[in-house]
Structures are given as structure tokens and as C-alpha cells.
Protein: Homoserine kinase
Organism: Autumnicola musiva
Amino acid sequence: MEQIKIFSPATVANLSCGFDVLGCCLDNVGDEMTIRQNDLNQVRITKITGQDLPLEADKNVAGVAVKALLAAVGSLKGFDIEIDKKIKAGSGIGSSAASAAGAVFGVNKILGDPFSNMELIPFAMEGERLASGNAHADNVAPALLGGFSLVRSYEPLEVLKLPTPEELRVVVLHPLIEIKTKDSRSILRQSVSLKKAISQWGNLGALVSALYTENYGLLGRSLQDNIVEPVRSILIPYFDELKKIAVENGALGFGISGSGPSVYGMCRGDKNAEKVRTAIRDFYKSKDIDFELHLSEINKEGIKILS
Ligand code: ADP
């Protein structure tokens, strides 16, 4: 195989109580990438459509992630990478992660699969280090593994794939304002009260249990964040109103996606997700902010091969 075309999905990281450790994979929102081997022994970003992003391999998360993979296998092979960006950078739905994860997935396939998708996570994380200064895994892991994933530990890295209850749907609102991950991290407090920590790990444990037992009620009660959301939500226009609307219309939970500005509503079933999407759209249409709105199933597979 010399060339591969893939769909690399958007992801919702944090999921309220799982700040920096939890994420899930979306099904119908993502970038398309074409990766082919070249004879130049160089990693090149040959084309980017849909967004203005660096073509220089060392400044693009895709290039950095692929170089980390090639260094690990000791390969001198070169690759050309084309990216059709459908996820805007700085959206909070894993734009940089989609490019980094997609690039290492594609190169790994062309090399004959020396790594499992789980083993590709650390290379994709190098792309995240470039994007935000922090090699986090909560977007690249669900992009590579599909479904829900939990980062138990960073040193050593241990990532778990969690089950996906069938009826879950995600509504994502992306207000078209840019919040850099770096900026939204810098406003976070560095210490947490014991009381808040207790409520957070209670919710996170319960959420994991709810995923295993398909207990939608418990899942909804657990999607709470008493630590990060109160600080970060001030960066998101009309966050409190949106949350109220989503919950009133039956969403199981509502919170910030990644570092924002996107927000997500977790819903049970298509009918409820449609209702939540319509209510959010009607509310935001009356405001002076452009937005994108997505409704997606949870993608259990992760990155998909298109050709
Ligand atoms: P997101 O949470 O949507 O990934 P980040 O703020 O974490 O947003 O990352 C976006 C940053 O990464 C931007 O500064 C962007 O220029 C940089 N970047 C470099 N390469 C890419 C790429 N291929 N796709 C998206 N962002 C990239």
C-alpha cells in the first residue's frame, strides 16, 4: 500500500467530570486526510484545504506526530500528507487531535501496521504538545480507539477503552469564536478543595459504571463538573442559558467540550437529540454569534479508511 485516504473524527474531551482523562469519538464530524509515501525521505504537508494552517511539517501537528512515529521505528521513509480540514482549529472538538491521530494512523497502515492503534497514542500526543504545549491524550485516544476512552495515567501512559451505550447521541454547538487551548488552560486554578475533588471523583466513577451498565439515568446525574466548568464557562457566550435549555429539553447532561468554545449535550436517542438540537439552534439564532451545530452518534470504531 502506498497511499491511504481516511476520515479522522472530531472528539469531545473532558465530558464534564472527566477533565483531562475522558473523551468520546464523534461519527459524522471530522477531517479527511490522504497520506502517501514519497521518494524524498521527507515528511511534507503538501496541501491543506478548509483552513489556514502551517504547511511546514514541524509546525503542523500531523508532521510532528508522524516524525515521532518514524523516529520510533527508525524509518527514513518520507510521506506526503494532504489535509481537508472540516474541523476548525481551536474549536474544542479535537481539531489538532484529528490531524495528529489521522496522520500516524495512515502512516502506520502504509508501513504495514507495526503499531496497534493503542500504541499510536503517544506519537499523536506529540502533535498535541505542539498545539497546546501539553501532550494530552484525551482527544487523540478516542480518535484512535473509538467510543469512550479514559486516561488512567500519563506516567506510564495507560489508556482504557470503555463501552458505548447504544442510544447515546451528542449534540455539539460550536460558537464561531476562537479560544486557544493555551489560553483556556491558563485561567484554571492549580489547586482544588477536598470537597470539590470528592464530588468530581464520585461523579467520574459513577459515569464509568453507567457506561458499563447502560444506566442512562446515572450517566446523566454523573455528567457534572464542579471544578473546571465554573471557571471556563465564562469564556463561552450564553453558557448558563444553553445548559438550562438543554436540560429542560431532556438532555442527560451538558457541558464544555474540551477547552471550548464548543459545548456538548449528551442525549438518549435520536428523538431527544433532535429536540435538544432544535432548542439550542432556536436560542442561538437569536444571538449575534455565528455557529455550527452537529448531532452525532458515538463512533465506536474511530478513524475510518475511505480508500
Ligand atoms: P483544538 O482543541 O480544536 O484541537 P487547539 O487550540 O488545541 O484546538 O489546537 C489548535 C492549534 O494547533 C492552532 O494553533 C493551530 O494552528 C495548531 N495546529 C497545527 N497543526 C494543526 C492541524 N493540522 N490541525 C489543527 N490545528 C493545528
Observations:
- The chain has a mean pLDDT of 97.
- The pocket of adenosine-5'-diphosphate is lined by residues 53-54, 60-62, 83, 89-92, 94-97, 99, 131-132, 180-181, 258 (CB under 6 Å).
- The radius of gyration is 19 Å.
